[in-house]
Amino acid sequence: MKILLDENIPVQIRKFLPDEYEWFTVKDMKWHGIKNGQLLKLLSDDQFNVMLTLDKNLHRQQNISQSGIVILLLRTYDNKLSTLKKYINSISDFLKSNPLPGIHVIEVIK
Q: What is 34-96 written as a DSSP string?
């Protein structure tokens, strides 16, 4: 499974994520500053399966279901590595569930 970490996710989290997947960052792909509509097209063109993001407005801006991409939205109060590390198990469980394209949300644990 090929997964993109959106630019609002700290790249350091990659070392804590399950290694059975291919993890890429926006920086790896040289996609900084690309708007969501074009980003979804690039994800599809480059055969990504999932994008991990904190962008709460993505579903209002784009028609995700037509993209064929699974969007995993972490709904959190900040994007600090220490906060996001709490969700590693939830992310892993989600990916193992073979999710359908669309937006899926993991809520914050304070």
A: --HHHHHHHHHHTT--EEEE--TTHHHHS-HHHHT-EEEEE--S---HHHHGGGHHHHHHHHH
Q: What is the pLDDT of residues 66-105, one digit of tens each?
A: 678 899 999 998 999 999 999 999 999 999 999 998 889 9
Query: Cα dist. 62→33, 36, 38, 54, 82 in Å?
Result: 16, 7, 10, 15, 30
For residue 86 the two structure tokens come to 């709490």
Name the DSSP letter for residue 26: H
Give pLDDT tens digits for 4-53.
Answer: 999 999 999 999 999 999 999 999 999 998 887 788 889 989 999 999 99
Cβ(94)–Cβ(103) below 8 Å: no
